[in-house]
What does this fold into?
Amino acid sequence: MLLDVHDLHVEFHTRDGVARAVNGVSYGVDEGETLAVLGESGSGKSVTAQAIMGILDVPPGRITGGEVIFKGRDLLPLKEEQRRKVRGAEMAMIFQDALSSLNPVLSVGDQLGEMFTVHRGMSKKDARAKAVELMDRVRIPAARERVRQYPHQFSGGMRQRIMIAMALALEPALIIADEPTTALDVTVQAQVMELLAELQREYRMGLILITHDLGVVADVADRIAVMYAGRIVESAPVHDIYKAPAHPYTRGLLDSIPRLDQKGRELYAIKGLPPNLMDIPPGCAFHPRCPMARDVCRTDEPPLYEVTESETDRGSACHFWRECLHG
Amino acid sequence: MAELSKNDEQVGTTPNVSGVEVVEARTEAEEVAALEVPVERGEPILQVRNLVKHFPLTQGILFKKSVGAVKAVDGISFDLYQGETLGIVGESGCGKSTVARLLMNLERATAGEIFYKGQDITRLSGKALKAVRRNIQMVFQDPYTSLNPRMTVGDIIGEPFEIHPEVAPKGDRRKKVQDLLDVVGLNPEYINRYPHQFSGGQRQRIGIARGLALNPEIIICDEPVSALDVSVQAQVINLMEGLQNEFNLSYLFIAHDLSIVRHISDRVGVMYLGKMAEIGTDAQIYDHPTHPYTQALLSAVPVPDPEARANRERIILTGDVPSPANPPSGCRFRTRCWKAQDKCAEEVPLLAVPERFKDSDTPAAHESACHFAEEKDVVHAA
It folds into this structure.
């Protein structure tokens, strides 16, 4: 396993109380594998990624437990200096909003080149040549001329390509992409996702794709981890989950996609609202919104049960996963 | 400037110009009276003809000099029928939000007409304009910035009554606001709360309640659910469909999520770079698209079914949308189109039923602005 996150807990201390953003998340990624982490805002999917990368804001954030084992060693006890050597060189991140992630007063060539001068000790001239090469690699036309330009001179899709180039620069083993195409138009999203998938195959990288889009997930993921209120509620290979979800939350998400045969009828909607992280419901956090909830769901927090009926490696954090699977 | 007048000429040749029954009203009282006449279900309530909006590009600070124009909307025509939902889809920069602002009279059109019940609202003023504004309301995309954080929910929803006191006399207002809260599925006791005490989905319900306050006939929804979580989107869509039936509303539903647009719309228009590329019923557009842009757009949407991965032919467009300040000559899509030929650079394709389908009753016989319009099988999400 390239990356093995084990029982991770993250809290945020705020004026109004303690927000438990991540409550015991475990997932793993192999090299060459794409894991999609699916969840709504506040589910803890981005916070988990920040803890893995070591870019969590501390304070107010605090990692209160767990391990992040990357290439066999736990990253969490490492000093910031050692973390910095891992970050960028061995694992890199692509953010949703490329415009605010790039420095507006440096040319894109300087920003790409910085990866090589800082991490590899290259001269500025060599770094510039590397920057052009990378921009070619992510198919930015006229890279030699555009390397001198500033972020605002690029379109949204081109800026996201520059972010991808920057993440790829040092050929890391793992890339975490946090909603990489959410800010893009669909035709551009298709281009960027195709590029990302192609580069991943070529470099055999592990990819963690954080998203809320069930369409994007179906297109590129090998495995899915569904998050709700800071926990993994379901984890399975992509084909299994779309065929028969084993958690009512996953089922609800899939059912609320508008389908042709539902035209003119009410859409299925999960009732209620996502929970307040300061006050997560006892028992199963999903029980106030769950159509299958019973007494035990209000009191006992379900562990991630192994879905034993499946031939593949599946888990569901529902007491009644069997019913859900067949329902 | 030469370029501008050339464009106006192209606009003038659109065949859609006819078909509007213009109401001739001379006095303000006549204008207002004409606006009160109800429209029958299925009859056009809003007719847009050759609508143009150019934003001037200027240079210099003291002596601003015009150096061109962003052609945000460049000659579009369509009808909105009473009781229907017309979906408008397109990518960012295609002009769909500018259309919304023009219909609301928040922007002054550069050219063209917007007929509401037969009167051109771009020319109205005073009492008549006020009456139009009461009847056309808007729901905005971002429920976080479109509600004033210093006002209570009661004040936000009740504010339209300050401007149109005839709808609800002063003593009645609190009751009316509570009714509205109830209608959109919020607890009427929340009337004294502030926006920050609500979630995104609840805020959007507040925005919808404000839009309903004056009993409008048309609601323009500009990306009303795109800022919401997936599980909450369905709730808001269901609410909007319910309200449409209850209050007999016509919706112009602007969005970029193609599957939601198909679910809610009776007809769909596809915009590209300030022009309407294709318009028809939802089945015509989704199942029988004839414009290459529509085909590419549909094929680019990820299908939420991993089994579809293998047998899907995707049309991946190259490049980005050109700048609306300097759109390509002829057909605006030609720079990214795989079918483009010389003719496409020379002649602007008109939005009309393609000649080859004209006399047949195939679903492909709907308006499409392409010289080489033809059907293509596209596997898509909706």
